[in-house]
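Anyone opening a protein record will find just a pair of labelled lines. The record below illustrates this layout.
***
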Amino acid sequence: MFWNAVLPGLILLGLVIFVHELGHFLMAKWRGVRILKFSLGFGPKLWGFRRGETEYVLSMIPLGGYVQMAGDSPSPDGAMPGGPEEFLSHPWFGRVLIGAAGPAANLITAFAVMVAVGMIGVSYPDYPNQLGALSDTSRAAHAGLREGDRIVSLNGAPVRSWIEIFIRNSRADRARPVNLEAQRGADRFTLSLSADEREPFFSSLRRPPDPPVVGTVVTGMPAYKAGIKEGDRILAVNGHAIRNWDDLPLALKGTVDQQVRLSIRRSDRDISLSVKPMDPEGRGQENARIGIEPPRRGVYVERHGFLESVGLGLRATTALVGSVYGGMWLTLSRPLYYREYVGGPLFIAQAASEQARRGIDAYLQFLAMINVAIMAFNLLPLPILDGGHILLALVEAVRRQAISATSYLRFQKVGLVVMGALLVLILANDPLRLVQRQRAIDQHSAAPAERPVAPATP
């Protein structure tokens, strides 16, 4: 249990940090800057060795890492380093390359990981090949299908799941009719669809809705902090009955930042709890989310060849970059609102374990996302971050003169204050989330059982 909860996060953080620092290390070596120390982690040394002029170290606190270069800060007497093999006296464009190499390594890694995901296979939630309720006016109902029927083959190819129905249709020649075999009880019958009927027929199909049972609670989201657990069955939202999963987003619509009362059945007890939906993408009241997902009843895995995966990886990485920068903008524009959802190493470790339980593809996609997040964060033009070093180098290029040691030290002091405040905020959020969730769970466990507000049906 311990290793299932901790190991995925340790591996993920270790890979992200290693890749980032390796980018700086290789670029500094290529530019001829001396490397004094390459460290994974901060604080006391756990293990290490020396090769040439460089000491390679594994340190105790796994909150990052660093590459210590010769001349990366002014000397105690305030003098700036003087040789090209020392970082601060290296030409400005070389410092830009060294500063950007770490974030670039993270971006390249994210792209490579997304290509690998395409080849390994992307898993999608899948369902039985059974039909749900059909509108009387739908093309499927006019063709003779009814709720509960199963589609078992298309053009002679067997169909075993819901997604396969649409995969088989998409791969068939659209200019030709489709022969579809369905099953009702023990009886099978065949339908023939013309090319013109195919699109309206397949778009009118509906699967049975999921029951309102929680399959996953997303770490850090409102449901997590409210103490909602996997296996909870949602009976009602603000007194309105929830009979299937599709009722839930409709009941939550328009409740962003408002306290919502959920009636929940947990094991053999009915409890009531309060949760405040949020809008994680900043799209407004129509996007109220509490951070829960239904159980996966099945999985469909889609694999691609190498060249196709390269294209998919490029598009997926571009989307990740846009998503991460969009999230950063929301955090900077509404810091008091989104600060609760900023996470540090503990949050990342929890989320990594959550994704690892879903499958290797989900874990790898999370690895790619964290690489992009580390890239974006380190490119912020703040002192002591890579973006700060790049900014100073560009200022030197514009001024055609290096900044003084006094100015550099002042810049670094500002950076230490800003980064210290950020670290306190991030590191404090992680345990606070855990405490808040455990307190909510304990409170619900101790509270007397309530009568259900409304019955729920599967």
Notes: Residues 128-203 form a domain with the Pdz3 Domain fold (CATH 2.30.42.10).
